[in-house]
Amino acid sequence: MNPFAIENQRLRAQVDDLLSRIEELEGRLRSNDPDCPLAWGLTRHEGQLVGALIRAGGNFVPRVHIEGLLWGKRKPAEPHRNVYVLIHRCRQKLKPHAIRIDAERHKGYSLRWIAKERVS
User: Fold this and answer.
1) pLDDT score of 117 more than 60
2) Strand partners, 113
3) Which segments of the chain are extended strands (E)?
4) pLDDT attached to residue 90
5) Distance CA 55, CA 63 (A)
6) What is the CATH class of 32-118?
7) Which 3 state secondary structure label does DSSP give 91?
8) What pTM was computed for the model?
9) Who's near 97: CB < 8 A, 6+ residues apart?
10) Are 31 and 46 in contact (CB under 8 A)?
11) If you average pLDDT over residues 72-77, what whole number do you get?
12) Could you tell me the CA-to-CA distances from 99 to 14, 59, 61, 103 in Å, in that order?
């Protein structure tokens, strides 16, 4: 076989691998959190919120911490309502993946995986 053809095949394989990696990384950037797979279809704020819950390892994350994470000092007029809406949207998007977001008054939100059979 022609040495140039062999080199061409090798380079094409490398380019294909790199393009696949770029696509994966772009998906992570869109969700803005490396812990959230692209398949979950999360927006930037949803990805930040779910990423914080994942990193909490099942412990509760206070709402005020979530507000600070999402908006810092430039919070919207009623940040608690925005967090509530984001939680609602995340719950809808994560339910098919057997992931549940729990809330407990005065504690915050936590994430847990549930058995696929129990997802309805």
Assistant:
1) no
2) 99
3) 99-104, 108-113
4) 95
5) 15
6) mainly alpha
7) helix
8) 0.66
9) 39, 40
10) yes
11) 87
12) 35, 15, 16, 13
